[in-house]
């Protein structure tokens, strides 16, 4: 009997020792994993401090109140807008680039700044801009911007249908108005050739469309808005020759009976406008039609010759 008890106790003690060993191994594994995690957390600390500083600067920007509040309903509106725009002794510098003053003809000189000033994204440091003889700072901002239609070099298209992107130009636009605007923009034909027509989604930033197609959709949106003033900021500079011709044909039709301000990289796109103003060293050095300025042989003729030689060399 004693032998049987002894034979039973021995394996039980062995089993206890085996269980203790497993527990020790588990504890050791947990401690090892904790030590590795702690050692790796040291690499996170610099990133966390950078993230904290970045978040602080972001919230500082978000909390900053703009001097020009688009939601401000104060200011006057005009019953009948002629679209007569005048820049009177304007000087301007960007808050983040205080040394930028001159408006000249070369790239990056500030041609697009004129568009931003007219839309009151900025106010000039001195001088003033008038619309039909009224200082635009006295006009209601929302109303002022509603008078303008902008077609930029890189149009902003949303990840939605072509119909919706055109309809952003006017609230509650009817289908017939959207189609009519697309026809005037020389876009209706290519839209109908798409698989879903006006219900085709353009993708993020219009990635599903070509450059010329995106521009014509943007032009259709501007047409639907029926603005008093049309602002064209390098609208064809990023297009190939074929797309440029189609877009330019659309723009030529839209410019009729409305004030149009064109910022152009390609001088060929402004030959038909009524007045060309050549900027140099912050001042207008000459003004007139394409042929008049060409005959003068001044700065405009020099720019045109430079543009032509550059085009031939490429």
UniProtKB/TrEMBL annotation:
Ordered alphabetically, the record's keywords are: ATP-binding, Glycoprotein, Membrane, Nucleotide-binding, Repeat, Transmembrane, Transmembrane helix, Transport
> InterPro entries, alphabetically?
AAA+_ATPase (IPR003593), ABC1_TM_sf (IPR036640), ABC_transporter-like_ATP-bd (IPR003439), ABC_transporter-like_CS (IPR017871), P-loop_NTPase (IPR027417), Type_1_exporter (IPR039421)
Q: Which domain of life is it from?
A: Eukaryota
Gene Ontology molecular function = ATP binding; ATP hydrolysis activity; ATPase-coupled transmembrane transporter activity
Instruction: Give the source species.
Output: Senna tora
Q: Where in the cell is it found?
A: Cell membrane
Cellular component, GO annotation: plasma membrane
Which topology term describes how it sits in the membrane?
A: Multi-pass membrane protein
Q: Chief location of this protein?
A: membrane
Name this polypeptide is given: ABC transporter B family member 11
Tell me the ranges covered by the ABC transporter domain, including all copies. Answer: 71-306
Q: Which family does it belong to?
A: Belongs to the ABC transporter superfamily. ABCB family. Multidrug resistance exporter (TC 3.A.1.201) subfamily.
